[in-house]
């Protein structure tokens, strides 16, 4: 069929009517039903997600509170309650010592990363110098390097410094965090430059401006970042297991004490794991208001 014959057929049939679009429903009852269904389905999904997140923690606590003979029971509610697993864990490992060492490592790593990230992000956000963008991209690019790539050089350097089998050896390689610099620099870039210029006109030094003007206005961001860094350091197992080869000085390595070739002692292990969650939970309760504000402002969820 030629193009002329197609045009002839179109002219014979006349103009083509545009497709008709059904008008939107104006029934208020149907609109309210759709909104109600969307709200119910959204809450149902959120509820199921929350249940899936909470249930493993509940099972950990429930197992730790069962009697030693009922540890493998599948009943949802642990009854009768017993603290025998906590007593067995306390007899097997030094719980206060493990808690203190773990808290010391997590606190030192968090404070070091916050301080270095604060100074670096302040320099990248406030000052103009040559190769600023290139240096920033190179620094942030280290965040993309897999941890397994830097693990061996860090271990060799710690061995040469004599820090293997020491708590300092766990802390030192973690003091610089590219993620922390990236997040703080984003917050400082949106900080009003008028305040910094006004402080300079008052004769304040850069060090004074940082601690009296910038830091007080960034407390929510610092609190959110602090708890993220603390949790990451508190839950880290792999690096302490490499550095502390011949001792169980932290909680995560202390859990290995209940794992053996003849079987695992699930009751004391769950009791010690439950105690390990308490400091992080307490820290979140204390800093909850700052964390929510920081996540809302930064768009993190």
Automatic annotation (TrEMBL):
Domain of life: Bacteria
Listed Pro residues bias regions: 16-26
CDD domains given in the database record: TM_PBP2
Residue ranges occupied by any ABC transmembrane type-1 domain in the UniProt entry: 99-287
Membrane topology recorded in Swiss-Prot or TrEMBL: Multi-pass membrane protein
Gene3D superfamilies registered for this protein in UniProt: MetI-like (1.10.3720.10)
Keyword Flavoprotein listed: no
Segments crossing the lipid bilayer: 40-61, 103-127, 134-157, 163-184, 209-231, 266-287
Residue numbers spanned by region Disordered: 1-32
UniProt entry tagged with the keyword Transport: yes
Keywords: Cell membrane, Membrane, Transmembrane, Transmembrane helix, Transport
Subcellular localization(s) per the UniProt record: Cell membrane
Family: Belongs to the binding-protein-dependent transport system permease family.
Name under which the protein is recorded: ABC transporter permease
